[in-house]
Amino acid sequence: MSLLPLPDEKKLLFRIAKRDVHAFKTVYDHYGRKVYGHCKRLLHTEVLAEEALQEIFLKIWLMEDRLLQIDHLDAYLKVLSRNHCLNVIRRQALEERTNATATADYTDAHNETEETILLRDAKALLNEAIEALPDQQREVYKLCQREGLTYDQAAQQLGISVNTVKTHMKRALASLRTKMEQHGKLPILLVIFNLF
Q: What's the first-to-final CA gap in the chain, in angstroms?
């Protein structure tokens, strides 16, 4: 990016600091193509290089009196271009990471929502199937599965034999499985049989 300095470059910078548009255009015309080329090599796209060129020269315009501290404008523009492009690259990387994280979070939330709906529907279907069981099977199922009683404890509470509790439980589970299969809820079955 090394170009011969403009004649009276210090005077041009002084005039730019005083808002001289013609002096600014002279500097832009002299260095603009080199700044653009440098940015394009770093950013790999014409659009980003064009945006970088505009932003870099906007910075030059806004520097005002600080322009008078620049001794070698070509070297200063090269450093300014490099730093600006590195910031653009960092910003792009951050945006990509943020977008990837947001997408992953959305997917996780979406999956959680689907799983919540699936589980809610499965529980509703299971409750409906339980309520449709014959009275004795429903009582045995609720005592053993919902309240966590052993077959012995359920037998004592209901005043029936342990073998009768086992028979009712076996029939209740078979009936519930059949009811669930009729609804074509195989994925739900996997969830629900964990509840059994």
A: 74
